[in-house]
TrEMBL record:
Lineage, top ranks: Eukaryota, Sar, Alveolata, Ciliophora, Intramacronucleata
Residue ranges of domain RNase H type-2 in the record: 31-257
UniProt record similarity statement: Belongs to the RNase HII family. Eukaryotic subfamily.
Names of the cofactor(s): Mg(2+); Mn(2+)
GO terms, molecular function: metal ion binding; RNA binding; RNA-DNA hybrid ribonuclease activity
E.C. number: 3.1.26.4
PANTHER family, per the entry: RIBONUCLEASE H2 SUBUNIT A (PTHR10954)
Positions with a binding annotation for a divalent metal cation: D37, E38, D147
Reaction catalyzed: Endonucleolytic cleavage to 5'-phosphomonoester
GO CC annotation, single: ribonuclease H2 complex
Enzyme class: hydrolase
Domain of life: Eukaryota
Designated name of the protein: Ribonuclease
Length: 299
């Protein structure tokens, strides 16, 4: 632990000792390059995390060679935590980063909606939002590196279109395994992975404090055991489970539960019918998302 702290301090000191401008000066007067990556695309439990990490192009070589960011999947937890500590200490001094949490509820709602949004489109929209947010904050983003989701050219064209909506132009690189090729994408992957791991720890403590839910991936034996043994009254699984995943659909079918996902149009008709019988002041708050009805279920 002591060695880890010394390494972190030395890396941060080495970077900052070579930076001659204030952060505001860097933000206002220099071109920046941005990398985006995600963590938790495949698990059935917990959120998917997106992250963007960006720094001035002027200091790209200094940051990448000193910090030695790599794809988060290629390093162990201790190393990820150390590098995330480096990022945290450098944030607001020579770089910055931002994360987006896409909860299991959010993913399920969009993928089970009347007008479905698939996971690729959700990913593309989230990446675009991170880029647009950086630009709106005043960063001059001239280079963007993204780990591809779906066809590369389609993804690139989509992001380019979002930039044009803001009247901006940037060099956009969308590639497979960008998290192992570009330092800012590697840094983003570390931000996303460490943040998601923290979220999973919180979920673990809430829903199964005396045992383990595993990694959340469908093939993890601990995750499979948790899902097979869980049956919450009325809702079957807690809100941290992605109901739109085939793993969950299979378990629900195996339990002989008939689930009717009522779409928003049908729910809207039911609300109108209710208004006929109840005065406005007595109406309950109407939530505009999917309702789930369980039948053939012993409650």
């Amino acid at each position: 632990m002591k060695k880890q702290q010394i390494d972190t301090e030395e890396i941060v000191k080495q970077v900052l000792s070579n930076v001659t401008e204030s952060f505001d000066e860097l933000k206002q007067n220099f071109d920046w390059q941005l990398g985006i990556d995600e963590a938790g695309r495949g698990p059935v439990i917990g959120p998917m995390l997106y992250a963007a990490c960006y720094w001035p192009t002027k200091y790209h070589k200094l940051i990448s060679e000193t910090c030695k960011f790599v794809d988060s999947k290629q390093i162990n937890e201790a190393t990820r935590d150390r590098l995330f500590d480096v990022l945290t200490q450098l944030k607001g001094k020579v770089l910055t980063f931002e994360t987006r949490e896409l909860t299991a509820e959010y993913l399920s709602k969009n993928q089970l909606a009347h007008l479905t949004i698939n996971l690729n489109d959700i990913s593309h929209n989230t990446a675009a939002d991170l880029i647009q947010n950086a630009i709106i904050k005043g960063y001059k983003i001239t280079e963007i590196y993204v780990d591809t989701v779906g066809p590369k050219q389609t993804y690139r064209n989509f992001l380019q279109g979002k930039l044009q909506e803001l009247g901006k132009v940037a060099n956009i690189v969308v590639e497979e395994k960008a998290d192992s090729k570009y330092a800012n994408v590697s840094a983003a992957s570390i931000c996303a992975k460490v943040t998601r791991d923290y979220k999973i720890t919180q979920i673990q403590q809430e829903i199964l404090p005396n045992d383990s839910i595993g990694s959340g991936y469908p093939g993890d034996p601990k995750t499979k055991k948790y899902l097979e043994n869980t049956n919450i009254r009325f809702f079957v699984f807690p809100k941290y489970i992605r109901f739109s995943w085939q793993t969950i659909k299979t378990i629900i079918n195996d339990r002989d539960l008939n689930i009717d996902y009522k779409d928003e149009q049908e729910a809207s008709k039911q609300v109108q019918n209710l208004k006929t019988y109840f005065p406005l002041q007595n109406q309950a708050k109407i939530y505009n998302y999917k309702s789930v009805t369980f039948s053939n279920c012993i409650l």
